[in-house]
Specification:
The chain is mostly helical and about 325 residues long. The protein folds into 2 domains: about 200 residues, Alpha-lytic protease prodomain-like (Up-down Bundle); about 100 residues, 2-Layer Sandwich (Alpha-Beta Plaits). It is built from 9 helices and 3 strands, in the order αααααααββαβα. The longest helix has 30 residues. The C terminus is likely disordered.
Amino acid sequence: MAGISTTKINVRAASFSVYSNTILTVGKFAVGFIMASTAVISEGIHSGIDLLASLTAFLSLRRSGKPADKEHPFGHGRFENISGFVEGVLIFMAALLIIIEAVQKILNLEEIREVSLGIIMMGISTLANVLVSTYLFRVARKTESIALEADAEHLRVDVITSLGVFAGLVAIQITDIHLLDPLIALAVAGLIISTAIKITRKSFEGLVDTKLSTEEEMKVLEAVKAGSEGVVWLHSIRTRKAGRDRFIDLVVWACHTLGVEEAHRICDNIEAKIANRIEHTSVIIHVEPCPDTECNHVGSECRLTQGNVKGLVTADKL
């Protein structure tokens, strides 16, 4: 992937998912109608929603990959969160459609046909989605793409549901109990709902400015400590995430002995150390004079590092 931009990598992966889901959706619907199978048709609906989700991811990745501009000075990262949220809603809709279809089938039970055809289709679907979802997960981890991760989650659930339908069709062929068909469809709907909840919750976090993980915030504290040179201390920290982009606001106390240029140089050093520890960061540092007015930091060790100033909070205590 060297030499290729993150946006191009993500868009290429999303387009691969679109092609795969298009083929599977058409195949499942065709086989489902030939068989008169609610379970297979429900899988067609599932793949159709996956196709819409893939298209949403594809479009959002093209948009979120654009650099910051006049109208979006903080970048376009939240387009990925919006995409993930929309995908979660679409999955809920798919589950509802499947439940309605399954209940109708239970009330008006009819024998399904060409069971072996459905078994072959579900086997192909399982293999295809294992390969595509594994590829998407690998790219999502490297590029930290929420949209691709959500798409991969959809396909991974599709693997489970396809296996369930596959096993159910085998059971129907052996036992000739056709009531299993709508019951399998209801089980598929339950798995889809659980995935929708997971994806919607994760995407929503980025839309409401949830802070970075404790692990990442600890990396920020380490960077401040490493770059402070003993004369700048972290007073407060605020973080949030939009797509892959991290936004970090720091308030630091600078020793009274520092000039403006020296304080600025140290802040640049801190920003560089944060960037080395966490990718895709935008850091804003606000510098305030140290509140310990009785100390001139001349010929003695800083009292903040010793914790001798009552009421003051240092980075070591955060």
